[in-house]
Task: structure prediction
Amino acid sequence: MQFSILVSFLFCSLALAIQPIEVKGNAFFVNGSKERFFIRGVDYQPGGSSDLFDPLADKTTCERDIKYFKELGLNTIRVYSIDNTADHDDCMEQLADAGIYVILDVNIPYASIARDDGECSYNTMYLNEVLATVKLMAKYNNTLGYFAANEVINDDESTGVAPYVKAVVRDMKTFIKNTGLRKIPVGYSAADVKENRLETAHYFNCGDDEMARVDMFGFNDYSWCVNPRPFTEVESIYSTDMSSVFSGGLVYEYSEESNKYGLVKISSDNKTVSTNDDFDNLKAEFKKTENPKGDGEYQADLKYSECPTNSSTWEAKEKVPSTPKGALKYIKGYKDPKGTGFKATTQWACTAKGNDDDDSDKYKKGGSSSSSSSSSSSGSGSSSDSPSSGSSSSKSSDAFTIKPSKAYLGVLLTTIGIFFGLIWGLLLD
Ligand SMILES: *[C@@H]1O[C@H](CO)[C@@H](O)[C@H](O)[C@H]1NC(C)=O
Ligand SMILES: *[C@@H]1O[C@H](CO)[C@@H](O)[C@H](O)[C@H]1NC(C)=O
Ligand SMILES: *[C@@H]1O[C@H](CO)[C@@H](O)[C@H](O)[C@H]1NC(C)=O
Ligand SMILES: *[C@@H]1O[C@H](CO)[C@@H](O)[C@H](O)[C@H]1NC(C)=O
Result:
């Protein structure tokens, strides 16, 4: 009896002690420590994207799964969608107790940038949803970072949408700054498109506007997609061959969905979990692979990238569109964004009332936050290249070819077999 009380007491004090992760140079560090933080993670979205379910709002679900995260030795999960009207205290606390951080994608399927109409889908109503999610989750020390978007560019023809995604990065970072939230890293998670993977990385890390450049860059690598997966790449990813550039990765994915890349199967009544061969293989690989010692030869003083030049496979404009003026009241911190949860649909809302009217002054006097460092110059967004839509997925299967020997600027992550790597920094050479 006394023993178990003691044990839970110890867990409590650990939970209280979870420190935020911060970016220094091209790497993650636990705040206040000289020790590098390497992500050992999995993607976590039971039910998949077709049947949206918020795994961080359901105490029973996270309770069921956290013991498997611990068994794998994880320190991070990535969640693709949450309900920004729900309460996440319980799960975030349970995860913190287990020493587990969360990387969160801020979009849901119909409240996101549309690759075939970046210009219209980047609107006030959309930013309200995204910023509400940012604000909601920023209060947890174990919110590691946010992805502004995932795989919006998914072939060599959808690159014209990139400026809109970069605009979302800028707006999120500006909102975090203006509202005095903790400096939570914001990034983009890129598809493995062999024609432009390097341009994509450079693009999100280029230009004079520091707020528009990502803090972390994730790369979804579709290599090693055999079944079962041996996960032998783990030994390389957590070696000094890669650690000067990469900061670990996240395995796609925890629960088995229709595409069969799950570490575990969840029973149809959701009560029980059974592990697959992939689970055992990953566990064994993590167990025998230590992180590089100390700072893993991270790079402290990299310069940001040159923006890629226009070509037949890269047609994104360098100029990032201005914030829709209706969203300035949120970004300046004068009015709190308020999400509407999974029912939000915003991709059409460039025509919504007030989308491009700056009414921020109306909210200013009641507002408590510091004033903006001018989050956007005026003028409406530049016109979109409107590349025709891609439902086409160009999943190239050739191996990841960015040689991580040189400087990357920013944090680089990878997806583990599919290994998601957090690339802190882009290849400069
Ligand atoms: C969150 O981190 C800060 C330091 O950055 C620390 O002072 C605080 O105790 C932490 N809170 C929790 C609940 O872990
Ligand atoms: C790190 O901790 C210090 C002191 O506790 C705090 O002032 C700072 O905001 C923290 N940084 C991040 C990125 O959390
Ligand atoms: C089981 O969980 C999934 C999400 O993982 C949810 O969509 C579904 O409704 C749940 N089913 C039952 C029977 O609770
Ligand atoms: C970019 O390159 C493509 C193909 O090379 C060309 O069709 C297009 O006009 C170029 N755009 C600009 C703005 O130069």
